[in-house]
């Protein structure tokens, strides 16, 4: 497999306070990679940097071999990078259908948009049932599925998700994880930030552990899940 994304010595600061301290990691094409860590570890900041929402202080972000660290979020969406943000951030006053159309804003072909929407409704049958409902009337799980479907409307190469289980009932978390696991073998690459470490490690190929802005561990998901430090810090209550 080829490396789709490679981060080299990335640093990020809020003003004079550095919060990401020279981290390096990579993701190969078609992998599901999990980034775990406690609140405040720098996980969301890392995703925001990769999606162009925040500018890094130094280092490089290589995507398909090209440095994208200075590119805009709009440019990165066109290159195939999509972020499903924490809290879903759907448009509550727009219908499911309208949310999906807004997700396809970079696509000019009406036929392509129609085909992709039909594909999303096939993949997410509950969204088809609720296509005319306002996003704000959906359950938390349905909103999360809408947020993922909206991101998929641009047919991304790299899909990044920030805490997709947040605020969801356990049975819905299982559904979301099964959905992400179903992407294996499709060519889609996934970077998952998730505090439900046990479930995330079960579906991912490899994992990294981020602590207070430092990358402290990496390996296959089985290796990381079996490490006593990870068990004590993140899996002890499972």
Q: Mind sketching the topology for me?
A:
Blueprint: E1 3-14, E2 17-28, E3 32-36, H1 43-50, E4 58-63, E5 66-67, H2 73-79, E6 81-84, H3 96-103, H4 110-123, H5 125-129, H6 140-152, E7 158-162, H7 170-181, E8 189-193, H8 197-203, E9 206-211, E10 214-220, H9 221-225, H10 228-235
Helix pairs in contact: 3-6
Provide a short characterization of the protein structure.
This protein has 238 residues and is an alpha/beta fold. The protein has helices at 43-50, 73-79, 96-103, 110-123, 125-129, 140-152, 170-181, 197-203, 221-225, 228-235, and strands at 3-14, 17-28, 32-36, 58-63, 66-67, 81-84, 158-162, 189-193, 206-211, 214-220.
Alpha-carbon distance between the two ends: 33 Å
Query: How would you sum up the major sheet?
Result: 6 strands, mixed
| Series of secondary-structure elements, N-terminal to C-terminal | EEEHEEHEHHHHEHEHEEHH
What is the number of strand segments? Answer: 10
Descriptive tags:
globular; alpha/beta; 238 residues; Rossmann fold; 4-stranded antiparallel sheet
Structure description:
The relative contact order is 0.18. The protein is globular, with a radius of gyration of 17 Å. The model has no long low-confidence stretch (mean pLDDT 94). It has a domain at 3-86 and 157-235: P-loop containing nucleotide triphosphate hydrolases (Rossmann fold). It has helices spanning 43-50, 73-79, 96-103, 110-123, 125-129, 140-152, 170-181, 197-203, 221-225, 228-235; strands at residues 3-14, 17-28, 32-36, 58-63, 66-67, 81-84, 158-162, 189-193, 206-211, 214-220. β4 (58-63) and β5 form a beta hairpin. It is α/β, with parallel strands linked by helices and 238 residues long. It has 10 helices and 10 strands. The strands form 2 sheets. A 6-stranded mixed β-sheet has the order 6-7-8-3-9-10, sandwiched between helices. α3 runs parallel beside α6. The two termini are 33 Å apart.
